[in-house]
Amino acid sequence: MTRPLPWTWAILSCALLSACSSFESALSADMAGAADSGGYGSDASGEWGTGGGSDGGDGGGMWDSGRPWDTGDYDDGYDREQENSVEALRPAATSDHLFIANPDRATLTRITVDGMGVVTTPVGVDPSVVRVTPDGSTALVLNKGSDTVSVVDASSLETSHVAVRPRMNRLEVSPDGRWSISWHDLAYDEADPEGDDGGTASYNEISLVDIAGRAHVPQVVGFNPRDVAFSADGTRAVVVSDRWLAVLDLTEDAPAPTRIRLAYDTVEPPEAEEVLLTADGTKAFIRQYGTTFLTVVDLEAGELRRIDVGDNATDLDLSPDGTRAVVVARASHELWVFDATDPFATPEVVALPEDEIFGAITFTPDGLEGILYTTASGLPGRYGTWNTTDPTAEIVVRSLVKPVHDVKVSATGGTLLFIHDDEDETGVASSSPFRGGWAVSIVEATSHFANPVRLAGEPTGFAHGTDGSFGALVMGGLPYLEVVDYRTLLFDEVSLKSPANNVGILPGTRVVYASQAHRLGRISFYDVDGKGLTTITGFELNAGIEIE
Fold first, then answer.
1. How buried is 195 (Cβ within 10 angstroms: 0-12 exposed, 13-18 middle, 19+ buried)?
2. Residue 483, CA distances (Å) to 91, 98, 123, 518, 529 in order
3. Per-residue model confidence as pLDDT tens digits over 186-241
4. Residue boundaries of the structural domains of the chain
5. How confident is the model over 490-505, as pLDDT tens digits?
6. CA–CA dist 385, 535 (Å, integer)
7. pTM recorded for the entire structure
8. DSSP string, 59-118
């Protein structure tokens, strides 16, 4: 059931984007005189704030409305929701080639899809991330050991090296293929503690690389950059860090950040966890930890407004068509659904079951259904389905064999995969065959019939066939490729010659590849229809290659 509620809001004004850099240099003065300057205020009309201060006090505006906007300490007694992904050493694919980083040998291997031709070329030290431009013409390699980005021509393998800021560990490419952005994600340090060399470090920086011009543009964006989002046309990027939103105009030759502070509290502000851009790139939605509001930034005007979203907003997603922004308010058991083009219109509020804990949402590709779940530890395995087209429809709750660790949806939305880790719900029966182990539940999305399968280890890579009929997964440290037929819900377990690292599907084919741990380089290709396995060993050497 749904109910409309009035939205409450508070306003911050960053002034115009062209003037935002000036407020940073005057920050101390603004803060000292904020009470007199009217900064961050709004008038009675409820329009965007236009107060004189840009980083100052409440100015007599909506900050005194009684809402604890900046506390960031709403605690409902459960863990943060986790969005799990595997990035390290993930191969990058185009329609013609597959690129694989080889950290131990400081090389990049290109495998040609048609004919399985293998060529290896030198890059930098400890290549850790590989990406390709959208047109497939260029591969980019982030080299952690040499603090460089290698720009590699996909056809000729001609390579240039661009020096970047130290200790970068993530890299993404703009949709138009003009820029790459690298940054240091502290969350990756937790996953890879050996990646910290103990040297001098800044956790506030990004490195932009002009791919065609081979030029480096370093910038400071705010402590602990967490995520980068691009407009669909690649003309704008935003970087969200713990306390700041940095806006970059990518049409410039040397983009400089406009920094917008996300919290009024300068001592203990809530941490920003997610940022999403609207399809036209004019607005950014930011979710901050432990808050009861959503922050919306008008990127054209450089202005910020907050809108009420219930208690403890734990997830934020755009619908697949980009028309709606949906916030999960875990503690108040609600979904807040906003018009992405007009987020200040009265939202639709969908009541969730009071006796269930749902803190995250994943949409089916057509956007007709939302899958609700929680990754908070110790809770029973449950998921809910929300019919996004019927305001009167109840949320249907179904049980699973274990708590949820992650959710994957097939390309057509016909199959749901619920990943379960080795933690159990409180009070699980000792007789459960899934107790203490990893598992996956393969669920047919129409009937919700499920085939739960216990796994031998932790899944470290997933891939879905583009036709929605099959998928594949590998488990770290184990020599197996698991191929799932989404039509029958059955697994085929394929034995590999070495422990698997990652998995993917060659574009436009029904061929699964699994990269493996081997001192000379090893990758296997599995034909889903013919059930044949081909393994290439020794590709890191460019010689002595074995094909089996």
1. middle
2. 18, 20, 33, 22, 11
3. 887 755 545 555 667 788 999 999 999 999 999 999 999 989 999 999 999 999 99
4. 352-455, 459-548
5. 999 999 999 998 898 9
6. 41
7. 0.81
8. TTSGGGSS--TTT-----SSPPP------TT--EE-SSEEEEEEGGGTEEEEEETTT--E
